[in-house]
Queue: 2 jobs
Job 1
Amino acid sequence: MNELDNLIGDLYEYDDELTAKQRKIIIAAIEAFAEKGYASTSTSEIAKNAGVAEGTIFRHYKTKKDLLISIVGPMVQKFIAPFVIRDMEKVLNQDHESIDDFLRAMLKNRIAFVSKNKLLFKILIQEIPFQPELKELFKKHIGMKVIEKATLIIQHYQEKGQLVDLPPATIIRGIASSIFGFIVTRNLLLPELDWDDEVEMERTIQFILHGIKK
Amino acid sequence: MNELDNLIGDLYEYDDELTAKQRKIIIAAIEAFAEKGYASTSTSEIAKNAGVAEGTIFRHYKTKKDLLISIVGPMVQKFIAPFVIRDMEKVLNQDHESIDDFLRAMLKNRIAFVSKNKLLFKILIQEIPFQPELKELFKKHIGMKVIEKATLIIQHYQEKGQLVDLPPATIIRGIASSIFGFIVTRNLLLPELDWDDEVEMERTIQFILHGIKK
Amino acid sequence: MNELDNLIGDLYEYDDELTAKQRKIIIAAIEAFAEKGYASTSTSEIAKNAGVAEGTIFRHYKTKKDLLISIVGPMVQKFIAPFVIRDMEKVLNQDHESIDDFLRAMLKNRIAFVSKNKLLFKILIQEIPFQPELKELFKKHIGMKVIEKATLIIQHYQEKGQLVDLPPATIIRGIASSIFGFIVTRNLLLPELDWDDEVEMERTIQFILHGIKK
Amino acid sequence: MNELDNLIGDLYEYDDELTAKQRKIIIAAIEAFAEKGYASTSTSEIAKNAGVAEGTIFRHYKTKKDLLISIVGPMVQKFIAPFVIRDMEKVLNQDHESIDDFLRAMLKNRIAFVSKNKLLFKILIQEIPFQPELKELFKKHIGMKVIEKATLIIQHYQEKGQLVDLPPATIIRGIASSIFGFIVTRNLLLPELDWDDEVEMERTIQFILHGIKK
DNA sequence: GATGAATGAGAGTTCATTCAT
DNA sequence: TATGAATGAACTCTCATTCAT
């Protein structure tokens, strides 16, 4: 399973953090959680699909929930961290003259990441409402930081006269909803459709820009 | 619990379709499903919260999944049917001269409905990915019908020169994503925030209109 | 269901002992018990097939076991009583000159009765091992009485020089086994076979006579 | 429980096919099924009597019915196979000059087997009518094979002029009924009686021989 | 480190029985 | 008398977790 192999690479910096069995467990868990949901997946099923003994799972992960967190946790950080740290810094440092460029760069980046990690993304948004630990993680990594930075960026472009004068929070919600909507439609709702990603992404950007540009 | 009482009224036309115990079961089930998810809620818990014997649940609903469907099924129809049948007909009959009016009317309507039925809505979007029966219901009631009608409406306004010349599917996705994003943020992600619904809704409409108007 | 209507007539002397609902309950119970066994038949199933409310069953029969006993109990008496009381008396009063005649009469009689009441017979032999009450009934009505009488009859014919000089108990077991074997094969094991009852019965009698006649 | 230890030995060729816990489960199940019937025995009861956790039963046997089949299935084969394969071959190969010898050998053999496995035999005949799987097994292992072979043997002795000229099917039914009657009386109906097995068996053979010999 | 048999709490479901109507 | 909603105990079966090997 190609997606899953890449994915592991994305989530764990150093391959040797994981034994071969751990990799197999994580891959089996991701597939099962995405397909049936965390609560409806049994550890015995994961063990069987991973080709390991049930006990082996619990040798590496104290509980079933531990396994979930260890899968989804890194995702939260990987998904968010670059957004916050890399891209945003750049913007504020005037790497992108126009908001078009910035938005396009960011959107492409995020969409590519989610497309590569569809299953993980599905698990993440399915389980966040029910796992306080995940919610906490999410808040910690996005919560204030991202919103603060995004607010700064928006104000930055508003001052440049490029953005409509709605409150930043509204704009953030507008942009985030559109991106989220695109990603969800693309990957979860209608994955079987024959999308031309480049074109559709460009259209989504146009839609957003129409919505927020002055 | 006020929301839940309204809700039952919304879902079941005639109060006497339900016995007192059935009402209590459904209310308890909705609360529990929304809070912990369908799979993580036990029927014994529902029974306890409803103040009935566990057997009573199974007298009215053959299985636990039956209970879920009988809760969420009507929601699908109630949420969608009016959208398709009433609003859309009106538009096509020129009830709304400008797209602004139409969009505003529809958005208000949908948002009000979801706000009144937050819990049900949460259950619906959480469980749809895992319950083929729900997916089927959803497709049957939204699937083609809504998209066809929406396409007609968009073409209608495009011909009037009021709408940007993107493909209808893109516009639909844009609008739907924004509405969905608004509803989810408003009700699920940040319900604790102090929203001024009127204002925020108007802003969302502005955002959408910006995005799709010529 | 023809068999069952006759049957009720056989079991209950006076039709007006039973209300219409009781008849329907008993018929439904017999069918279900015979098909799936007493323990695997639910009262709700009986009620449904009988077209009455579940409560109605318990109005007439205090418990499920009561229902069983009230069905099978009369059978025990009806099946046995004539054997003991009528036939045997006749034999001892020299109604049948030869043992051939006696055996033939008795066998025909028993076989006809069981054939008419196949389902009841099946229930009886299936449940006797597990229902002490039935065992008790059986012992009371067959137990000593039948065996004593049969012993007398056998000794009677042995004295006449018509019967082999095995111990009566052995002869009784031989005869009973053969009859039981015939009935079970005919009605339970191979009911779908195309039997010529007259012929097969005569052969069975020949077999028994061969076995016991001097 | 001595009978049960032998029995396990009979059913499973190699002791190490079964773990200690499995043995305990099977023994407890046999006792309970024989005493109260399959349907009226709960798995929790079996677990308690076996001194294992209830879950352990389901680790070894997927369902309760699986447990039943795995107990009774081997019995069907063990009980029947030798009858068909060993004994009958011998007869046809003239090992037994007279039918007396053959019948005596066979009867002794079967009776001994059933006596040793009374409980299993009881379960088998109690559950066959309600378990299609068992019926199938039975048919497959006895069904045609035994009856065909038996027919051959009977014709063999009829040609030798030793047997009465009734149709083989009638003779088979006669013999089988007598044996079945003997076994059932001996082991199930009147087990508490003080039987002299040798003597009674000889008498049963005499009875059968009387019935079928020319 | 890996195994998988064993556990026992708890899951969903069934059922004989009761009782207000 | 007949009903059928309600009950709660008991049922079969699943599961995350433990631990001796």
Job 2
Amino acid sequence: MAVTIKDIAAYAGVSYSTVSRALNGSGAVEEAKKEKILEIARSMGYVPNQAAIMLKKSKSRNIGLCFSTISKSTSPYILHDVLIGVYGVIGSDYHIIVKAMDMHEPGTLNQSNFAGLLIMSQTDRDEEFVEEARAKGIPMIAISRRIHSGVPAVVTDEKGGMEKVMDYLLEQGHRRIGVIEGNPNLEATMLRHEGFWQAASRWGLDAKSIPIEYGNYRYNSGRLAAGKLLDAHNDLTAILCFNDEMAMGAIIATTERGLKVPEDISITGFDNLDISGYADIRLTTVERNSIQIAAEGARMLLAYMQEGALPKDVWLENRLVKRNTVSNQQQRVNR
Amino acid sequence: MAVTIKDIAAYAGVSYSTVSRALNGSGAVEEAKKEKILEIARSMGYVPNQAAIMLKKSKSRNIGLCFSTISKSTSPYILHDVLIGVYGVIGSDYHIIVKAMDMHEPGTLNQSNFAGLLIMSQTDRDEEFVEEARAKGIPMIAISRRIHSGVPAVVTDEKGGMEKVMDYLLEQGHRRIGVIEGNPNLEATMLRHEGFWQAASRWGLDAKSIPIEYGNYRYNSGRLAAGKLLDAHNDLTAILCFNDEMAMGAIIATTERGLKVPEDISITGFDNLDISGYADIRLTTVERNSIQIAAEGARMLLAYMQEGALPKDVWLENRLVKRNTVSNQQQRVNR
DNA sequence: GTTAATATTGCAAAGGTTTGCAAGAAATAA
DNA sequence: TTATTTCTTGCAAACCTTTGCAATATTAAC
């Protein structure tokens, strides 16, 4: 049905090996003949059979972009940004296969299927998958968190970022600060926890004086958690949220109670989703550029696949983005 | 390197054809032997070489999920929902390759590479891609809009949906309604335009009395457009937006100007993103369930690929979701 | 026990490509 | 002209499966 190099060879009156060499410039082919073959291939609408190439070279042109899950518990923003970042680097050299690790059937991973994997892991349940990939020798890069000692990673300074934003709140005079953390078992949560706690203890805050609620990093959970905090502690002047989505929820919970942001309650986030900077309530947050992280990971993977040398971890700073959801306590009386 | 059926055959003392038959239950194999072969395969960690299977069967296990673009102009919400919908149906039977049609290199499409395509087209620039796929005989389903007479589609009642929400505004007594449309060249925009216009003329509204601004379906454009509308027409009581994202922007633009939603200005959306129902400002909108659309499309594609019969178009209703961003004009004086 | 029918198995080809090897052609050197 | 080197080219094997066909083993029927 489809045009093969044999068809081209027959038409051009050469052997198919010559066609193959002409097509991908591997061996030497007489210039004129090469031109002619390329022209014929084009006019016949030849498309290389990827399956055959993969079989022969035992190399695929697929890159797996692996998320812990595709369900509602992954943030649409992050997913989108990661795709943008990866695409920007990979272009059309490879196909990008979006995989949900929680749906993986153990034992079905194959080197001939994936030239490399980009792992966007959120949970330790992904370990089995990662282990399988490692056993099969598939090049892997972890983006967003370290997952395994042998897997190069792009990591951002979660701890330092959170420290910066907590410091900022404290510098602005806030002392009664509520915290909305994310899923406690995630590494990102633990690092961010360490970060805010480090700042807090440096400023001499007492653990008991910091009320903490837990969300799941999604909008609605932030709204509920903020509600609980505000209802239980009417002396709070600020709420530090472990990500932007929950911070958005917290803003709503605050205004729902007739309180103003930032006049009555200051709120901070983490991620700097683009939507966080749009509204009139422009979130003070920590920039964690998912596009950049993903792009960096893709670059590393490409290098890894092509040169074979294990890339070194990449460490990205997180920048504090000061906007208008944090008030200065020195300049006003307590509520 | 990797384990092949020959290795299994050698170990089990049978021919590799027998192993093949045992493995995928095609021919008859003595029960005891079959068990043994499966056991050996498992213990040796056998993974079928997809490339070889694809080559032999000239059938791939990849489904292309094709967006017009992956850049910032695709909505993260929709992208996410579509992925969820497709995954729910496809599971792990196929790999899902996310493709950006604007990055496609013409002539590189191949039946052996894609078992089928799900087309989420937003612009006519995708036509070249679709035409190539059609010429190559790759099964395709269009989701979200009709793209080609020969391509079965899952379409929702854009026009009817917009008619419903415009009707609702008019029933509530609004007569000075501003409109924020999306990119004028998109089919969805035209259909939605027809819908609101049909309702408007049925109620005897004059074209000149309806100010229209154009956004690009993203948040920020809605904010800007609403700003223009409000600044230029201080008698507006409602703004009808062509999607939820722009409606969110419009809400912000409204509150930025010290106006309240819905007391001063009513606002409606289209899409019913899950985030639209979370805040205290819960958007009145039209439900357009992307998860459902994508799932339906995936089901059709599967049927198409397996049975070969061209599926019929699927038509989904769009439901008006009344929430709290529309006020009743009869109950209050004009602003 | 013989024949016929059926169940099980192996052989070999095929699918489209790449590539080592050897042969042939052309160019250079003597 | 002949010997040597360098380009070009074709042959054939290999990558791993699936599957039609023929061969063999097993069972059933008489």
